[in-house]
């Protein structure tokens, strides 16, 4: 299979997966927002934000470092087994640490302990996500497997929600159904890796564990930084303003992230492809096309934001429309910022610049968020997101221009 054909095949698979990730939640969101009530839905959104921290910790940036390692060593079965085994063991250890942290939070933070059972049930997602090992499929460019698996999670959750969830007392069941989907798919993914892809699990040496840990550390800080100025917003809103505010903010934020995530398939496919092909010409074509399509999506959502919020979430969520407009302004430069990240700077060896862009931005974001706590409001947090994403974009654009990565003669310098 040619490189371009493989790129198209994997992009198609990831696009289908992302469309399902985008469409199926829109089937369940209106139902959950109404059935669980604003406060119940806010608790669910808050719990998702809390668990997202632990998923980032357990992933430890291996979706980037592991993907690159697997891509480079794709024809070395022994090396692949070493990479997979080392990463899986590290992720398991991090999962145990994360569980202990969650238990401590439940014991000492009142706003978390109130719905402790929901958070513990949701933590099953972390275990399922750990077993999923997406980095293997991305590195080998076998995205059809991960597409089917992710689609299975979404379809399972969507169907069971309508069958079993009837009122706001079913909130723990919503968490359980969501978590079971991830657990089952994680187990299936593990079987595919071991039996079909034929990567063996071996007891990793201490040296391999240390090497994989060190290799992914910079990516981990990057992922934590991103989480601090994305997921932390809903978490902080829920912590200081209550479940209802978390529902208002989280609803707009979910739509915003869903719109931006439409370009994630291109991001995931381009990263390993550019890393080994260095095809800047194709990258520039896809970048321009994505920028134009992004502007169209942003304009449509911005104009019809009030209608979108009313149709999806119903009454009580009107304030979310204002937040969605703010987020859509951020989306104008967030999409090109994402594509300038790992698919370009990272793939061409400038990972430090990519990581620093989000680390510096997250530090500024968190400092401002803490300063603003006495006057905190959902609109203020949304404006802060807009500002932070702009900082990331400017930082990355500066280094793309500085290194001349989009110049036609860039590859001649290599």
Entry keywords:
single chain; 414 residues; mainly alpha; 2 domains; 19 helices
Helix and strand topology:
Elements: H1 3-35, H2 37-59, H3 62-72, H4 77-108, H5 110-113, H6 116-122, H7 124-132, H8 134-140, H9 143-164, H10 171-196, H11 206-228, H12 231-241, H13 243-260, H14 264-277, H15 280-303, H16 305-313, H17 319-346, H18 351-371, H19 378-402
Tell me about this structure.
The protein folds into 2 domains: 1-228, no CATH class; 242-414, no CATH class. The protein is 84% helix and 0% strand. It is built from 19 helices and no strands. The protein has helices at residues 3-35, 37-59, 62-72, 77-108, 110-113, 116-122, 124-132, 134-140, 143-164, 171-196, 206-228, 231-241, 243-260, 264-277, 280-303, 305-313, 319-346, 351-371, 378-402. Helix 1 (3-35) runs parallel beside helix 9 and helix 17 (319-346) packs parallel to helix 19 (378-402). The mean pLDDT is 86.
Number of strands: 0
Kindly give the count of domains.
Answer: 2
Low-confidence stretches: none
Shape: globular
Biggest β-sheet, characterized? none
Percentage beta strand: under 5%
Write a concise synopsis of the structure shown:
With 414 residues, the chain is mainly alpha-helical. The chain is built from 19 helices and no strands. The protein has helices at residues 3-35, 37-59, 62-72, 77-108, 110-113, 116-122, 124-132, 134-140, 143-164, 171-196, 206-228, 231-241, 243-260, 264-277, 280-303, 305-313, 319-346, 351-371, 378-402.
């Amino acid at each position: 299979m040619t490189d371009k054909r493989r790129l198209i095949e994997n992009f198609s698979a990831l696009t289908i997966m992302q469309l399902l990730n985008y469409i199926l939640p829109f089937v369940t969101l209106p139902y959950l927002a109404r059935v669980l009530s604003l406060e119940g839905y806010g608790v669910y959104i808050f719990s998702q934000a809390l668990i997202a921290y632990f998923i980032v910790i357990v992933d430890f940036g291996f979706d980037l470092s592991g993907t690159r390692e697997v891509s480079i060593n794709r024809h070395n079965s022994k090396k692949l087994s070493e990479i997979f085994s080392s990463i899986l063991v590290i992720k398991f250890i991090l999962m145990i640490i994360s569980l202990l942290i969650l238990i401590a939070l439940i014991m000492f933070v009142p706003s978390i302990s109130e719905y402790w059972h929901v958070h513990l049930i949701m933590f099953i997602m972390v275990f399922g996500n750990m077993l999923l090992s997406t980095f293997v499929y991305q590195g080998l460019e076998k995205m059809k497997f991960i597409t089917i698996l992710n689609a299975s999670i979404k379809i399972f959750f969507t169907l069971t929600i309508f069958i079993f969830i009837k009122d706001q007392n079913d909130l723990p069941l919503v968490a359980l159904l969501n978590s079971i989907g991830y657990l089952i798919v994680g187990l299936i993914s593990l079987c595919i890796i071991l039996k079909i892809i034929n990567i063996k699990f071996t007891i990793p040496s201490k040296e391999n564990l240390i090497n994989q840990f060190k290799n992914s550390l910079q990516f981990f800080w990057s992922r934590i930084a991103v989480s601090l100025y994305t997921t932390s917003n809903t978490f902080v809103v829920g912590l200081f303003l209550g479940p209802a505010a978390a529902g208002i903010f989280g609803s707009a934020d979910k739509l915003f992230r869903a719109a931006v995530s439409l370009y994630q398939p291109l991001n995931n496919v381009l990263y390993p492809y550019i890393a080994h092909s260095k095809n800047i010409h194709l990258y520039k074509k896809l970048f321009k096309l994505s920028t134009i399509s992004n502007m169209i999506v942003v304009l449509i959502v911005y104009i019809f934001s009030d209608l979108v919020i009313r149709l999806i979430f119903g009454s009580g969520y009107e304030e979310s429309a204002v937040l969605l407009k703010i987020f859509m302004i951020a989306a104008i430069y967030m999409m090109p910022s994402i594509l300038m990240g790992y698919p370009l700077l990272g793939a061409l060896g400038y990972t430090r610049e990519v990581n620093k862009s989000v680390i510096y931005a997250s530090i500024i974001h968190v400092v401002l968020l803490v300063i603003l706590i006495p006057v905190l409001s959902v609109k203020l947090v949304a404006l802060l997101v807009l500002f932070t994403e702009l900082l990331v974009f400017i930082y990355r654009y500066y280094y793309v221009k500085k290194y001349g990565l989009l110049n036609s003669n860039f590859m001649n310098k290599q």
